[in-house]
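Supplementary Methods S3. Complex input for the L5K734KM-bound model.
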Amino acid sequence: MLDLIKIRRDLHQIPEIGMEEVETQKYLLKVIHEIIANKAFIELKTWETGILVLLHGSQATKTIGWRTDIDGLPVEEQTGLPFASKNGRMHACGHDIHMTTALGLLEVLGQTQPKENLLFLFQPAEENVAGGKQMYDGNAFGDWLPDEFYGLHVRPELKVGDIATNTHTLFAGTCEVELTFKGKGGHAAFPHNANDALVAAAYFVTQVQTIVSRNVDPLGSAVVTFGQMHAGTTNNIIAETAFLHGTIRALTLDVLEAVKERLETIAKGVAGSFNQEVEIKLTQGGYLPVENNPQLAHELMTFFENETAEVNLIDIEPAMTGEDFGYLLSKIPGVMFWLGIDSPAPLHSNKMTPDEKVLDFAVSNIAKFLKIKTED
Ligand SMILES: CC(=O)N[C@@H](CCC[C@H](N)C(=O)O)C(=O)O
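Predicted complex, serialized as C-alpha coordinates:
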Protein backbone atom coordinates (compact mmCIF):
# COMPACT_ATOMS: atom_id res chain seq x y z
CA MET A 1 0.00 0.00 0.00
CA LEU A 2 1.10 3.58 -0.62
CA ASP A 3 2.63 5.49 2.27
CA LEU A 4 0.18 8.41 2.08
CA ILE A 5 1.88 10.51 4.73
CA LYS A 6 5.25 10.27 2.96
CA ILE A 7 3.62 11.15 -0.36
CA ARG A 8 1.83 14.14 1.14
CA ARG A 9 5.05 15.38 2.75
CA ASP A 10 7.03 14.89 -0.48
CA LEU A 11 4.43 16.87 -2.44
CA HIS A 12 4.26 19.48 0.31
CA GLN A 13 7.95 20.27 -0.23
CA ILE A 14 7.67 20.97 -3.96
CA PRO A 15 4.71 23.35 -4.41
CA GLU A 16 4.55 25.10 -7.76
CA ILE A 17 2.47 27.92 -9.22
CA GLY A 18 -0.32 27.06 -11.66
CA MET A 19 0.84 25.87 -15.10
CA GLU A 20 4.40 25.52 -13.75
CA GLU A 21 3.77 22.24 -11.88
CA VAL A 22 6.61 20.38 -13.61
CA GLU A 23 8.17 18.66 -10.56
CA THR A 24 4.74 17.94 -9.14
CA GLN A 25 3.66 16.29 -12.38
CA LYS A 26 6.88 14.25 -12.46
CA TYR A 27 6.30 13.05 -8.89
CA LEU A 28 2.64 12.24 -9.53
CA LEU A 29 3.49 10.31 -12.69
CA LYS A 30 6.06 8.23 -10.81
CA VAL A 31 3.48 7.20 -8.19
CA ILE A 32 0.72 6.69 -10.77
CA HIS A 33 2.95 4.45 -12.90
CA GLU A 34 3.67 2.32 -9.81
CA ILE A 35 -0.06 2.00 -9.13
CA ILE A 36 -1.15 1.18 -12.67
CA ALA A 37 1.76 -1.11 -13.65
CA ASN A 38 0.50 -4.26 -15.42
CA LYS A 39 -3.13 -3.14 -15.31
CA ALA A 40 -4.32 -3.26 -18.89
CA PHE A 41 -7.64 -1.58 -18.05
CA ILE A 42 -5.93 1.64 -16.91
CA GLU A 43 -4.74 4.27 -19.38
CA LEU A 44 -3.01 7.58 -18.80
CA LYS A 45 -2.49 10.79 -20.73
CA THR A 46 -1.07 14.20 -19.91
CA TRP A 47 -2.14 17.73 -20.83
CA GLU A 48 0.44 20.45 -20.14
CA THR A 49 1.19 19.85 -16.41
CA GLY A 50 -2.10 17.99 -15.86
CA ILE A 51 -2.68 14.24 -15.85
CA LEU A 52 -5.71 12.14 -16.74
CA VAL A 53 -5.99 8.50 -15.69
CA LEU A 54 -8.86 6.38 -16.98
CA LEU A 55 -9.97 3.08 -15.49
CA HIS A 56 -11.87 1.51 -18.37
CA GLY A 57 -15.04 -0.14 -17.06
CA SER A 58 -15.87 -3.74 -17.88
CA GLN A 59 -19.41 -2.87 -19.06
CA ALA A 60 -19.27 0.88 -19.11
CA THR A 61 -22.38 2.92 -19.74
CA LYS A 62 -20.95 6.11 -18.24
CA THR A 63 -17.81 7.78 -16.88
CA ILE A 64 -17.54 8.97 -13.30
CA GLY A 65 -14.90 11.65 -12.72
CA TRP A 66 -12.82 12.47 -9.64
CA ARG A 67 -10.92 15.75 -9.79
CA THR A 68 -7.98 17.06 -7.79
CA ASP A 69 -6.08 20.29 -8.25
CA ILE A 70 -2.28 20.27 -8.05
CA ASP A 71 -0.94 23.84 -7.80
CA GLY A 72 0.47 25.81 -4.86
CA LEU A 73 0.47 29.48 -3.83
CA PRO A 74 3.07 32.27 -3.66
CA VAL A 75 3.27 32.02 0.13
CA GLU A 76 6.45 31.75 2.22
CA GLU A 77 5.73 28.86 4.62
CA GLN A 78 6.07 29.59 8.35
CA THR A 79 4.88 26.32 9.89
CA GLY A 80 8.34 25.31 11.15
CA LEU A 81 7.58 21.73 10.08
CA PRO A 82 10.59 19.55 9.19
CA PHE A 83 9.03 18.92 5.76
CA ALA A 84 8.09 22.57 5.15
CA SER A 85 8.47 23.97 1.66
CA LYS A 86 11.68 25.89 1.13
CA ASN A 87 11.06 27.19 -2.37
CA GLY A 88 8.99 30.27 -1.47
CA ARG A 89 5.75 28.59 -2.55
CA MET A 90 3.36 26.72 -0.31
CA HIS A 91 0.49 24.27 -0.46
CA ALA A 92 -1.41 26.73 1.71
CA CYS A 93 -4.70 25.74 0.10
CA GLY A 94 -4.28 22.03 0.84
CA HIS A 95 -3.77 20.78 -2.70
CA ASP A 96 -1.09 18.39 -1.35
CA ILE A 97 -3.86 16.72 0.67
CA HIS A 98 -6.15 16.75 -2.39
CA MET A 99 -3.49 15.09 -4.60
CA THR A 100 -2.56 12.47 -2.01
CA THR A 101 -6.21 11.59 -1.50
CA ALA A 102 -6.63 11.16 -5.26
CA LEU A 103 -3.57 8.88 -5.42
CA GLY A 104 -4.92 6.84 -2.51
CA LEU A 105 -8.29 6.52 -4.24
CA LEU A 106 -6.61 5.50 -7.50
CA GLU A 107 -4.68 2.80 -5.64
CA VAL A 108 -7.76 1.40 -3.88
CA LEU A 109 -10.15 1.61 -6.83
CA GLY A 110 -7.57 0.50 -9.37
CA GLN A 111 -7.19 -2.88 -7.68
CA THR A 112 -10.07 -4.35 -9.66
CA GLN A 113 -11.67 -3.29 -12.91
CA PRO A 114 -14.83 -1.27 -12.25
CA LYS A 115 -18.03 -1.78 -14.22
CA GLU A 116 -18.30 1.88 -15.19
CA ASN A 117 -15.40 4.03 -16.38
CA LEU A 118 -13.64 6.02 -13.67
CA LEU A 119 -11.56 9.06 -14.58
CA PHE A 120 -9.00 10.69 -12.28
CA LEU A 121 -8.15 14.27 -13.22
CA PHE A 122 -5.02 15.88 -11.76
CA GLN A 123 -5.74 19.46 -12.78
CA PRO A 124 -3.22 22.32 -12.89
CA ALA A 125 -3.75 26.00 -12.07
CA GLU A 126 -6.81 26.09 -9.82
CA GLU A 127 -5.50 29.17 -8.04
CA ASN A 128 -4.51 31.41 -10.92
CA VAL A 129 -5.54 30.73 -14.51
CA ALA A 130 -8.44 28.26 -14.29
CA GLY A 131 -6.74 25.09 -15.50
CA GLY A 132 -10.06 23.23 -15.43
CA LYS A 133 -11.57 25.62 -17.95
CA GLN A 134 -8.45 25.48 -20.10
CA MET A 135 -8.56 21.68 -20.14
CA TYR A 136 -12.25 21.60 -20.99
CA ASP A 137 -12.03 24.28 -23.68
CA GLY A 138 -8.83 22.72 -25.08
CA ASN A 139 -10.58 19.32 -25.42
CA ALA A 140 -8.06 17.69 -23.06
CA PHE A 141 -10.67 15.10 -22.06
CA GLY A 142 -11.51 13.94 -25.59
CA ASP A 143 -13.82 10.93 -25.23
CA TRP A 144 -12.85 10.59 -21.54
CA LEU A 145 -15.21 13.41 -20.58
CA PRO A 146 -17.07 12.34 -17.41
CA ASP A 147 -20.86 12.15 -17.18
CA GLU A 148 -20.64 13.04 -13.49
CA PHE A 149 -17.82 14.90 -11.76
CA TYR A 150 -16.86 14.90 -8.06
CA GLY A 151 -14.21 16.73 -6.10
CA LEU A 152 -13.35 18.07 -2.67
CA HIS A 153 -11.69 20.98 -0.96
CA VAL A 154 -10.10 20.91 2.49
CA ARG A 155 -11.57 23.14 5.19
CA PRO A 156 -9.40 23.99 8.22
CA GLU A 157 -12.25 24.94 10.59
CA LEU A 158 -13.91 21.53 10.22
CA LYS A 159 -12.76 18.43 12.11
CA VAL A 160 -11.30 15.30 10.57
CA GLY A 161 -14.40 13.17 9.97
CA ASP A 162 -16.51 16.10 8.75
CA ILE A 163 -17.75 16.19 5.17
CA ALA A 164 -19.78 19.28 4.37
CA THR A 165 -21.74 20.22 1.29
CA ASN A 166 -25.23 21.20 0.13
CA THR A 167 -27.65 20.66 -2.74
CA HIS A 168 -27.20 24.11 -4.31
CA THR A 169 -24.38 26.71 -4.44
CA LEU A 170 -21.23 25.80 -2.52
CA PHE A 171 -18.71 28.46 -3.62
CA ALA A 172 -18.90 31.95 -5.11
CA GLY A 173 -18.06 33.09 -8.62
CA THR A 174 -14.93 35.22 -8.65
CA CYS A 175 -13.26 37.78 -10.87
CA GLU A 176 -9.63 38.86 -10.55
CA VAL A 177 -9.00 42.62 -10.70
CA GLU A 178 -5.81 44.43 -11.72
CA LEU A 179 -5.74 48.24 -11.65
CA THR A 180 -2.98 50.73 -12.35
CA PHE A 181 -3.41 54.38 -11.43
CA LYS A 182 -1.15 56.56 -13.57
CA GLY A 183 -0.12 59.97 -12.24
CA LYS A 184 3.13 61.95 -12.38
CA GLY A 185 6.19 61.26 -10.24
CA GLY A 186 8.16 63.98 -8.50
CA HIS A 187 10.07 65.21 -5.45
CA ALA A 188 8.34 64.70 -2.07
CA ALA A 189 8.97 68.40 -1.31
CA PHE A 190 7.09 69.62 -4.42
CA PRO A 191 3.77 67.72 -4.41
CA HIS A 192 2.08 70.52 -6.38
CA ASN A 193 4.31 69.75 -9.36
CA ALA A 194 3.53 66.01 -9.28
CA ASN A 195 0.36 63.89 -9.34
CA ASP A 196 0.50 61.23 -6.64
CA ALA A 197 -0.78 57.82 -7.86
CA LEU A 198 -0.37 56.33 -4.36
CA VAL A 199 -2.88 58.79 -2.89
CA ALA A 200 -5.39 58.09 -5.69
CA ALA A 201 -5.05 54.34 -5.10
CA ALA A 202 -5.56 54.83 -1.36
CA TYR A 203 -8.80 56.79 -1.99
CA PHE A 204 -9.92 54.07 -4.38
CA VAL A 205 -9.33 51.28 -1.85
CA THR A 206 -11.38 53.18 0.71
CA GLN A 207 -14.21 53.98 -1.68
CA VAL A 208 -14.66 50.45 -3.03
CA GLN A 209 -15.52 49.33 0.50
CA THR A 210 -18.91 51.00 -0.11
CA ILE A 211 -19.80 48.55 -2.89
CA VAL A 212 -20.66 45.78 -0.45
CA SER A 213 -22.07 48.08 2.21
CA ARG A 214 -24.07 50.39 -0.10
CA ASN A 215 -24.65 48.78 -3.51
CA VAL A 216 -25.21 45.09 -2.86
CA ASP A 217 -28.57 43.92 -1.52
CA PRO A 218 -27.91 43.11 2.16
CA LEU A 219 -29.61 39.76 1.55
CA GLY A 220 -27.24 39.04 -1.33
CA SER A 221 -23.53 38.34 -0.83
CA ALA A 222 -20.41 39.84 -2.29
CA VAL A 223 -16.74 40.33 -1.46
CA VAL A 224 -14.33 43.01 -2.66
CA THR A 225 -10.77 42.32 -1.46
CA PHE A 226 -7.49 43.86 -2.57
CA GLY A 227 -4.64 41.65 -1.39
CA GLN A 228 -1.77 43.36 -3.16
CA MET A 229 -0.75 46.99 -3.64
CA HIS A 230 2.49 48.40 -5.02
CA ALA A 231 3.37 52.04 -5.35
CA GLY A 232 6.49 54.12 -5.27
CA THR A 233 10.14 53.42 -4.63
CA THR A 234 11.19 55.29 -1.49
CA ASN A 235 10.00 57.80 1.11
CA ASN A 236 10.86 61.02 -0.65
CA ILE A 237 9.72 60.31 -4.20
CA ILE A 238 6.11 60.77 -5.23
CA ALA A 239 4.77 57.62 -6.88
CA GLU A 240 4.05 57.87 -10.58
CA THR A 241 1.98 54.68 -10.70
CA ALA A 242 0.12 52.53 -8.20
CA PHE A 243 -0.82 48.92 -8.88
CA LEU A 244 -3.61 47.09 -7.12
CA HIS A 245 -4.48 43.40 -7.37
CA GLY A 246 -7.70 42.05 -5.93
CA THR A 247 -10.60 39.69 -6.25
CA ILE A 248 -14.34 40.25 -6.29
CA ARG A 249 -16.81 37.54 -5.49
CA ALA A 250 -20.55 36.88 -5.46
CA LEU A 251 -22.86 33.91 -5.20
CA THR A 252 -24.65 34.76 -8.46
CA LEU A 253 -23.33 36.03 -11.79
CA ASP A 254 -25.84 38.92 -11.74
CA VAL A 255 -24.44 40.28 -8.48
CA LEU A 256 -20.89 39.70 -9.72
CA GLU A 257 -21.62 41.73 -12.87
CA ALA A 258 -23.12 44.55 -10.79
CA VAL A 259 -20.04 44.61 -8.50
CA LYS A 260 -17.71 44.68 -11.52
CA GLU A 261 -19.60 47.63 -13.04
CA ARG A 262 -19.59 49.57 -9.80
CA LEU A 263 -15.88 48.94 -9.27
CA GLU A 264 -15.08 50.24 -12.76
CA THR A 265 -17.20 53.34 -12.19
CA ILE A 266 -15.46 54.10 -8.89
CA ALA A 267 -12.00 53.51 -10.39
CA LYS A 268 -12.68 55.86 -13.30
CA GLY A 269 -14.30 58.40 -10.97
CA VAL A 270 -11.37 58.44 -8.54
CA ALA A 271 -8.85 58.66 -11.39
CA GLY A 272 -10.85 61.52 -12.94
CA SER A 273 -11.05 63.39 -9.66
CA PHE A 274 -7.22 63.28 -9.42
CA ASN A 275 -6.78 64.06 -13.10
CA GLN A 276 -5.11 60.67 -13.59
CA GLU A 277 -5.54 57.72 -15.92
CA VAL A 278 -6.49 54.27 -14.70
CA GLU A 279 -5.99 50.98 -16.48
CA ILE A 280 -8.49 48.29 -15.42
CA LYS A 281 -8.24 44.57 -16.13
CA LEU A 282 -11.01 42.25 -15.00
CA THR A 283 -10.43 38.52 -15.56
CA GLN A 284 -13.19 36.14 -14.67
CA GLY A 285 -11.67 33.11 -16.40
CA GLY A 286 -13.42 29.97 -15.30
CA TYR A 287 -14.30 30.86 -11.75
CA LEU A 288 -18.05 30.44 -12.01
CA PRO A 289 -20.06 29.82 -8.84
CA VAL A 290 -19.70 26.17 -7.80
CA GLU A 291 -23.22 24.83 -8.29
CA ASN A 292 -23.81 21.35 -6.97
CA ASN A 293 -26.25 19.24 -8.96
CA PRO A 294 -29.20 18.95 -6.54
CA GLN A 295 -29.99 15.30 -7.25
CA LEU A 296 -26.38 14.06 -7.22
CA ALA A 297 -25.62 16.10 -4.11
CA HIS A 298 -28.66 14.63 -2.36
CA GLU A 299 -27.45 11.15 -3.31
CA LEU A 300 -23.90 11.84 -2.05
CA MET A 301 -25.12 13.39 1.19
CA THR A 302 -27.51 10.50 1.84
CA PHE A 303 -24.68 8.04 1.20
CA PHE A 304 -22.26 9.71 3.63
CA GLU A 305 -24.99 10.18 6.21
CA ASN A 306 -26.27 6.61 6.16
CA GLU A 307 -23.55 4.33 4.79
CA THR A 308 -20.35 5.53 6.43
CA ALA A 309 -20.28 5.41 10.23
CA GLU A 310 -17.08 7.48 10.41
CA VAL A 311 -18.45 10.46 8.47
CA ASN A 312 -20.11 13.41 10.16
CA LEU A 313 -22.14 14.86 7.29
CA ILE A 314 -22.85 18.59 7.50
CA ASP A 315 -25.36 20.46 5.32
CA ILE A 316 -23.45 23.72 4.93
CA GLU A 317 -24.11 27.28 3.74
CA PRO A 318 -22.21 28.57 0.68
CA ALA A 319 -18.79 30.16 1.21
CA MET A 320 -17.18 33.02 -0.70
CA THR A 321 -14.18 30.94 -1.77
CA GLY A 322 -13.79 30.46 -5.52
CA GLU A 323 -12.93 27.33 -7.49
CA ASP A 324 -12.54 26.70 -11.19
CA PHE A 325 -14.31 23.38 -10.60
CA GLY A 326 -17.35 25.68 -10.93
CA TYR A 327 -16.63 25.84 -14.67
CA LEU A 328 -16.46 22.05 -15.01
CA LEU A 329 -19.67 21.71 -12.97
CA SER A 330 -21.37 24.18 -15.33
CA LYS A 331 -20.68 21.69 -18.15
CA ILE A 332 -20.97 18.37 -16.30
CA PRO A 333 -23.30 17.61 -13.37
CA GLY A 334 -21.53 16.80 -10.15
CA VAL A 335 -20.76 17.70 -6.58
CA MET A 336 -18.00 19.38 -4.63
CA PHE A 337 -17.69 19.02 -0.88
CA TRP A 338 -15.58 20.30 1.99
CA LEU A 339 -13.32 17.90 3.87
CA GLY A 340 -12.43 18.82 7.46
CA ILE A 341 -8.69 18.97 8.24
CA ASP A 342 -8.72 20.58 11.68
CA SER A 343 -5.98 23.18 11.15
CA PRO A 344 -5.69 26.06 13.64
CA ALA A 345 -4.60 28.34 10.78
CA PRO A 346 -6.94 29.07 7.85
CA LEU A 347 -6.72 28.49 4.09
CA HIS A 348 -4.02 30.59 2.38
CA SER A 349 -2.24 31.12 5.71
CA ASN A 350 1.53 30.52 5.88
CA LYS A 351 0.86 28.45 9.01
CA MET A 352 -1.81 26.11 7.72
CA THR A 353 -1.18 22.60 9.09
CA PRO A 354 -3.75 19.95 8.14
CA ASP A 355 -4.14 16.95 10.44
CA GLU A 356 -2.71 14.13 8.33
CA LYS A 357 -5.18 11.65 9.84
CA VAL A 358 -7.53 13.02 7.20
CA LEU A 359 -5.75 11.04 4.49
CA ASP A 360 -6.81 7.55 5.61
CA PHE A 361 -10.27 8.84 6.51
CA ALA A 362 -10.75 10.48 3.10
CA VAL A 363 -9.44 7.58 1.04
CA SER A 364 -11.44 4.87 2.80
CA ASN A 365 -14.74 6.75 2.85
CA ILE A 366 -14.64 8.40 -0.57
CA ALA A 367 -13.54 5.08 -2.10
CA LYS A 368 -16.76 3.52 -0.77
CA PHE A 369 -18.79 6.24 -2.49
CA LEU A 370 -16.93 5.97 -5.81
CA LYS A 371 -17.19 2.20 -5.69
CA ILE A 372 -20.97 2.40 -5.49
CA LYS A 373 -21.00 4.98 -8.30
CA THR A 374 -18.93 2.76 -10.60
CA GLU A 375 -20.74 -0.49 -9.81
CA ASP A 376 -24.34 0.72 -10.45
C1 LIG B 1 -10.38 27.48 -2.71
C2 LIG B 1 -9.68 28.74 -3.00
O1 LIG B 1 -9.08 29.33 -2.13
N1 LIG B 1 -9.72 29.18 -4.27
C3 LIG B 1 -9.20 30.45 -4.70
C4 LIG B 1 -9.51 30.66 -6.17
C5 LIG B 1 -8.97 31.96 -6.72
C6 LIG B 1 -9.63 32.40 -7.99
C7 LIG B 1 -9.04 33.64 -8.62
N2 LIG B 1 -7.63 33.54 -8.82
C8 LIG B 1 -9.37 34.87 -7.77
O2 LIG B 1 -8.53 35.31 -6.98
O3 LIG B 1 -10.45 35.41 -7.93
C9 LIG B 1 -9.82 31.55 -3.84
O4 LIG B 1 -9.13 32.57 -3.64
O5 LIG B 1 -10.96 31.44 -3.38
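The two ends are 26 Å apart (CA to CA). The mean pLDDT is 98.
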